[in-house]
């Protein structure tokens, strides 16, 4: 994660994206609103990035704790529809 503002904030989970379309939409919103973020793939093997068949497979999206509330407001429609 880029630390441009010398932030020493804790990095926390914003959400779990369950498919690539959802992850890309979330990433686009975060980038458009200048929220630094990073992500981790959980429970995935090669070739399973597009759609996850298991509830244990997801992409964990992480943000600075101070950004979480506002970022969550912005991505909530994505989480409910994709």
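Q: What amino acid sequence fits the structure above?
A:
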């Amino acid at each position: 994660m880029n630390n441009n503002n010398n932030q020493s904030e804790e990095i926390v989970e914003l959400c779990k994206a369950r498919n690539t379309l959802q992850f890309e939409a979330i990433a686009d919103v975060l980038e458009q609103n200048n929220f630094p973020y990073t992500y981790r793939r959980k429970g995935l093997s090669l070739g399973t990035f597009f759609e996850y068949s298991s509830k244990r497979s997801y992409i964990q999206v992480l943000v600075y704790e101070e950004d979480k509330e506002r970022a969550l407001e912005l991505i909530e429609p994505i989480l409910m529809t994709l």
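Q: And what stands out in the fold?
A: The beta strands are 11-17, 37-42, 58-64.
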